[in-house]
Design a protein that fits this description.
single chain; 234 residues; alpha+beta; 9 helices; 11 strands
Length: 234
């Protein structure tokens, strides 16, 4: 008789896996099996969840809050690779190869995390080839997104980078009002906070966005998309 705890769709661990684009493809019993192995813990704003080079023990899902994935540099000019929100996962690379973490992960807010150890997920990947293919698809999508970010940092002006970042954040949350500070946006687009502030203030004057501390609301999506597309015309 199995000693695995019984889980259903009311369990937060089950819910986050079932909603996830990766694990949601699994049969309900497999999702329940994975969720039973998962551990939930709180996180605190500013907490470093792991650093680049730390042992890669497995996958992490955000149940509540936001996590920033950062590529650190010796001169302090860190590159923000991604902002992970509730219902999303990170750490897929370490899940597959078991090698050290490739970036830093820092909590942007208070919240809760769910961790899945590599030893608990690998047997399911081996038994479910479709799931392994899904992991590859996720990693390819992350690689494409990182390549696009590098291209933007190298070749596009700040206004284009900022417009694209706001549109990506809005699409990821399905919201027009984006919870993000100007410091966070500056790190995301590789610019000084003062430069981001000037660009946002100009857009606010033109009715493209509205600003309150810690939040940017898109008022004219068409105008913002036009700004974002300027980089494609160069």
């Amino acid at each position: 008789m199995s000693l695995m705890p019984r889980l259903d769709a009311t369990d937060a661990r089950y819910e986050v896996l079932a909603r996830n684009a990766l694990f949601g493809r699994l049969p309900a019993e497999d999702i329940a099996r994975l969720a039973a192995y998962a551990h939930v813990r709180p996180m605190r704003r500013g907490e470093t969840l792991f650093r680049r080079g730390d042992p890669g023990a497995g996958l992490i899902a955000v149940l509540a809050g936001r996590v920033r994935i950062v590529l650190p540099s010796e001169d302090g000019k860190d590159i923000v690779l991604n902002t992970v929100r509730a219902g999303e996962v990170f750490g897929e690379i370490a899940l597959l190869d078991g090698r050290p973490r490739s970036a830093d992960a820092v909590a942007l807010t208070d919240g809760r995390l769910m961790t899945l150890e590599r030893r608990d997920v690998l047997p399911l990947l081996e038994a479910r080839p479709k799931l392994a293919l899904a992991v590859i698809e996720v990693l390819c999508e992350r690689l494409r997104r990182t390549s696009a970010q590098v291209e933007e940092l190298l070749f596009f002006p700040l206004e284009v980078r900022l417009a694209r970042a706001l549109l990506r954040l809005a699409a990821a949350q399905n919201l027009a009002s984006i919870p993000a500070t100007q410091k966070e946006l500056a790190e995301l687009v590789g610019a000084a906070r003062e430069s981001v502030n000037r660009a946002l203030k100009a857009w606010e004057a033109d009715g493209v966005v509205s600003l309150i501390p810690g939040r940017v609301t898109i008022r004219n999506e068409a105008a913002l998309r036009a700004l974002a597309q300027e980089g494609d015309e160069r």
